[in-house]
Amino acid sequence: MRFGHFDDARREYVITTPQTPLPWINYLGSEDFFSLVSNTAGGYSFYRDARLRRLTRYRYNSSPLDMDGHHIYIKDGGTVWNPGWQPTKTPLDRYSCRHGLGYTILEGEKDGICAAQELFVPKGDACELDRLTLTNCSDRPRELDVFSYVEFCLWDAVDDSTNFQRNFSTGEVEVEPCAIYHKTEYRERRDHYAVFWSNTPVTSFDTARDAFCGVYGGPADPQAVRAGHCSGSIAHGWAPVGALHIHVTLAPGEEKKILFGLGYIENPQEEKFTDPGVINKTRAHAMMARYADDAQVDAARAALADHWESLLSGYQLQSGEEKLDRMVNLWHQYQCMVTFNMSRSASYYESGTGRGMGFRDSCQDLLGFVHIVPARARERILDIAATQFEDGSAYHQYQPLTKKGNRDVGTGFNDDPLWLIAATAAYLRETGDWPILEEQVPFENDERKAQPLMEHLRRSFRFTCTHLGPHGLPLIGRADWNDCLNLNCFSEHPGESFQITGPSEGPVAESVFIAGMFVKYGREYAELCDRLQLADEAAAARRSIDAVEQAALTAGWDGAWFRRAYDAFGNPVGSRECTEGQIFIEPQGMCVMAGIGRETGQAAQALRSVEERLDTPYGVVLHQPAYTSYQLNLGEISSYPPGYKENAGIFCHNNPWISCAETMLGHGDRAFEVYRKTCPAYIEDISEIHRTEPYVYSQMVAGRDAPTFGEAKNSWLTGTAAWTFVNVSQYILGIQPTLDGLRIDPCIPHTLTGYTVTRRYRGAVYHIAVDNTAAVQHGVQSITVDGKALAGNVLPLAAAGTTVQVQVTMG
């Protein structure tokens, strides 16, 4: 069942009913100011950090769902309605929501009045613009009262939702004609405030929630809207809001546009010591002046469109396969850019109050967007590396505003250091920017501890070398990729648990997954050493890698698949010896991607075991059999009911690893089958089962052990976005950046007879046409570059600004 459709020409997903299975959202903003907006105008806004600079409130886990947001009310006589249906839920004569690239347009019609609410964040400005277009589609004059309403958050979203004894006394505003200033805490911080304004003369206003909604009212039926006017309230303490009321008259057929804006203003350092009760409104006035008329707003929308056109033009596919083209050209890359901006900090499943930017998450996200914004990828690598410790380990998360490590989450995730190598190597393959390795980067953001980035990578590599367990496999620490596999937590006494943290404190758990990572990304590190003429270091690195690879092939092999780990007692996890959790997806994907067992047949056998034991119609589950009871020696993984999240759910994030691994063995049909099963465009028809947005990936889908098999959760912010784009663009379509140029190595379904990729790479543009009339899955027969035969399959680097024509014949 569908609740909308793709509009490929306009690069939009069009939702045709407000009552989607869950709120379906979009992200507005691409720099510092961001808004989340749902298909019914729910959502919230923040500046850079969803916790520390939250502009508007959002109530998670609320009922009714998704009531807080960017709401516009239209009062037409005795009828009150919203263009996006919520929060009044007045039935509409017509409704649609268009989620596009950095914008959303909600259109509603009621009793001959057509209303379009257009929302976007302009490039280069810290504000959200909401433009309302009203059209009188009837044959008689109409008088309407329009209200736009936001509820301000008191900046720190955690404090705002907990510290009521203080916050009920701190709300403070100022009002000008057409503008409301949210200056709560300004007298304390003196460096930022928000402004809510309109470019149209205001009839009335409110700034106190009790006055606008009523003490026992709410956004579904505000007393000011019901009365047809606001009261002019000034918030003193309690809950400050912004409510602007405009009376509108429309002749038959007449159209009027009204702009509402929500902006963030940050004063320079020297102004923080002025009168604490006075806001310098100069910057706010300048912001409002930039969008005073429709021509300026139109220009801002056009600039936003140009921005996205430039970003997405770097990788474009024409295959004749409509759904594949749609995902590769638009939605995969769009989601990658959202994860670049958000990491895992702010979604409809991440409240923005805790996780911040993930070390591992942000490194993996970079794999999917480095070709789009290489300069910003460079900045991100340096930011991430600066949170690292001197021993090579790292804070698992850091706050985007301060770029400081998140001590609440802490350290001990032993896969983290290797992801920094993965991200940096991917950046170098894309850009050839070797000077980045010489950049001075502090440890723990302490400039006194600054070292070249290459030293950070060296310590990342050595961290694994110096943290090996009794089987010669890497120690897992607190966890590896699977945060819920906590193998060092155990107790011999019921009701007690403790953490083993080092070899001196007893037996420690090991990870076969990290072993695969170490082999894959360790080899990339050794290659960097080669390029820097560090021959001895490269040789030593390869000796360490070979030893871990051998351990993975012996202690890590269970007979038909790779084991997952060894627990703190030395017992295997992910083995036939286990009653539950006998086989896991992660080591099968990562070890085969690393080339482990490729020559001995173990890699092929491991992937056969995945297909036989883990595959389902909705994707590959994390492990089987599911855990049916809590097992203290395994930690949080067994705390979930069977089939959900880490307990045998379908983690979309690591499904691409299996697809990538299949291409390593030349299995194009199987690789594409795995890709399709979780790809949004291919499962749009089961939206009533899947429930989350049919245009982006979710983190997980309920597995076959769950009563809601096939239901997705945690959409948008997931490493699935980056890994899926890497999978389809580099492993399946086979356009692979290397240190020396683009390697061409497609591994496609035999039914795909050919395709063309336009790829921007190091300043040149490559038009790569692949001919597969031979109907093979893998293998390149010949390549010509600008009409000349190429020996091998790595394209020579072209000069920046040039265009290269490449013809590839498979066979």
TrEMBL record:
<dbReference type="Pfam" id="PF06165">
    <property type="entry name" value="GH94_b-supersand"/>
</dbReference>
<dbReference type="InterPro" id="IPR011013">
    <property type="entry name" value="Gal_mutarotase_sf_dom"/>
</dbReference>
<dbReference type="InterPro" id="IPR037825">
    <property type="entry name" value="GH94N_CBP"/>
</dbReference>
<dbReference type="GO" id="GO:0016740">
    <property type="term" value="F:transferase activity"/>
</dbReference>
<protein>
    <submittedName>
        <fullName>Glycosyl transferase</fullName>
    </submittedName>
</protein>
<feature type="domain" description="Glycosyl hydrolase 94 supersandwich">
    <location>
        <begin position="11"/>
        <end position="293"/>
    </location>
</feature>
<keyword id="KW-0328">Glycosyltransferase</keyword>
<keyword id="KW-0808">Transferase</keyword>
<dbReference type="InterPro" id="IPR052047">
    <property type="entry name" value="GH94_Enzymes"/>
</dbReference>
<dbReference type="InterPro" id="IPR033432">
    <property type="entry name" value="GH94_catalytic"/>
</dbReference>
<dbReference type="InterPro" id="IPR008928">
    <property type="entry name" value="6-hairpin_glycosidase_sf"/>
</dbReference>
<feature type="domain" description="Glycosyl hydrolase 94 catalytic">
    <location>
        <begin position="307"/>
        <end position="734"/>
    </location>
</feature>
<dbReference type="InterPro" id="IPR010383">
    <property type="entry name" value="Glyco_hydrolase_94_b-supersand"/>
</dbReference>
<dbReference type="Pfam" id="PF17167">
    <property type="entry name" value="Glyco_hydro_94"/>
</dbReference>
<dbReference type="InterPro" id="IPR037018">
    <property type="entry name" value="GH65_N"/>
</dbReference>
<dbReference type="InterPro" id="IPR012341">
    <property type="entry name" value="6hp_glycosidase-like_sf"/>
</dbReference>
